[in-house]
Amino acid sequence: MDGSLTKRVAIIGAGPAGLFAAQHLAEAGLSVSLFDQRPSPARKFLMAGLGGLNLTHSEPLEAFLGRYRPAHAQLLQSVRDFPPAALQDWSAGLDEPTFAGSSGKVFPKSFKASPLLRRWLRLLDQHGVTLHSNTRWHGFDEDGALLLQEGEGPIQSQAFDAVLLALGGGSWAKLGSDGSWVSILREHQIGVKELLPANCGFEISFSEHFKERFKGTPLKKIAVSHAGNRVVGDAMLDATGIEGGVVYALSAELRDAVLANGTTQIEIDLKPDVSANKLTAKLARPRGKQSMSNFLRKATGLPAAAIALMREAGPLPAEPEALAALIKALPLQVTAPRPIDRAISSAGGISFDEINEHYMLTKLPGVFVAGEMLDWEAPTGGYLLQAVFATGRSAALGIASYLQD
C-alpha cells in the first residue's frame, strides 16, 4: 500500500480494550474500523457498571501489580506504563472525575458506565472511528484477510493493514465474550490455554431443607480461609453453593485446587471480629430451656442462615469451646466452580509466549491481541479493567509502531 495513504486498522471486539485501542490509533491519524458481533458496543462494560463501575483501585502500585496471575512481566509492564492514576485522568478527561471508596475501589462520579461510555463513543466518532455492529468474525482467508459476516449476510473478505483482536474471554457469552475465537487461533497453531471460570461462585452440597430455606440469603462480614489465605467480606448463599466478593477473591486458588483434587475445603469464620475466647465465654452461660438456635442467636448475634450453615457441617457440639471453634472455623467442602458463563471473568487464553513485545502474534504478522484474550486473571476490585485498558493501549502503540515501520 502506498505509504502516503492512510493505513487501515480493524479492531474485532468493541469492549474497553478495543475501544481504548481505537481511541489511541485514531488520535495517531489511522483509519479505524471497529467490528462487534452484538447490536451495540461494550455490553459487558455496561453490565459491570450497573452496580457501580469499578474502574480501578487506589492501593500502591506494587501491591496492585501483585494481584495478577500469572504475573507475566509484559502484562505488569503495560500496567506500569498505564497505571491507575492514568486511567483516572482519562476518565476525568471525559468529564467523569473519579473518587475512591472506603475499600479503595475507584469509581467515576456518576457511579455508572453509561454516561462515560456515551462520551467515549462520541469522542471516537469525532475521530472518525467507524463502528460495525452485528458483525461476526470468522477468521482469516488464505491471503490473511478478515472473514466478516454482517447479520445473516454472506461471509466476506476484507483486508486491512493491521488487525487487533479484542474479543474478551469466555464469560457472559450473551454479552459477546463467547470464546469462539479459541478454535480459530488454534487452527493457526497459536497456543491457547483452556478458558476457565474466574471470579466465580462455587458448588457446595447443601441439604434440601437448607436449599429451600436459605437460597438467596446474604452472609455479612464473614471471613473465608483456604490454604492459609484469609479474606474478609460478604457472601451470598444460594441453592447450590456460595458466591460473592469474599469467594471471588479466593476463586483462582479454589478452582485450581478443585481441578487438581476433585474437591477442596474452605473454612468460614462467622464472627471475624470476635475472638474464640470471647465466644466461649458467651456460650458458657446457662442455656436453660432455649433451643440451641435461639441460644446461639441471643448469645452471639448469629443470623439464622449462619446457624443453619453450621448444622450443614454436622451435629452442633454442646461444649462451649467446641461450639466457639466451629463458629470461628466452619468447614465446608467445595466441589466445583460455577460454569464459565456464570463467572465474572475467565482465566486462560493466549500464552504470552505467542506474542512479541508489541502484543503482535508472532505466527500471524500484523495481527495483535489485547485484554482478556491473553492468559492472565485478577480479582474484582478494578484490577480487571485496569489491565484491559493497559493492554489495549500497549497493543495500539504496537500497531502504530508496526505500521510506521
The termini sit apart by: 13 Å
| Count of individual helical segments | 15
- Give the overall shape: elongated
Subunit arrangement of the protein: single chain
**Rg computed from alpha carbons, rounded to a whole number of angstroms:** 24 Å
Number of DSSP strands? Answer: 20
How is the biggest beta sheet arranged?
7 strands, antiparallel
Structural class: alpha+beta
Mean pLDDT: 96
What is the helix content? 25-40%
Low-confidence stretches: none
Identify the strand order in the major beta sheet.
17-16-13-14-15-12-18
Percentage beta strand: 15-25%
In words, what does this structure look like?
By secondary structure, this protein is an alpha+beta fold. It contains 15 helices and 20 strands. It has helices spanning 16-27, 43-48, 61-65, 73-81, 84-93, 114-126, 181-187, 208-214, 245-248, 251-261, 276-283, 292-300, 304-312, 320-328, 383-404, and strands at 8-12, 31-35, 56-57, 98-100, 105-108, 130-132, 135-140, 146-150, 155-158, 162-165, 192-198, 202-203, 217-226, 229-238, 241-243, 264-269, 330-334, 336-337, 345-350, 367-369. The strands form five sheets. The protein has a seven-stranded antiparallel beta sheet. It has a five-stranded parallel beta sheet with strand order 6-2-1-10-20, covered by helices on one side. β1, α1 and β2 form a beta-alpha-beta unit. The longest helix has 22 residues, at 383-404. The radius of gyration is 24 Å and the shape is elongated.
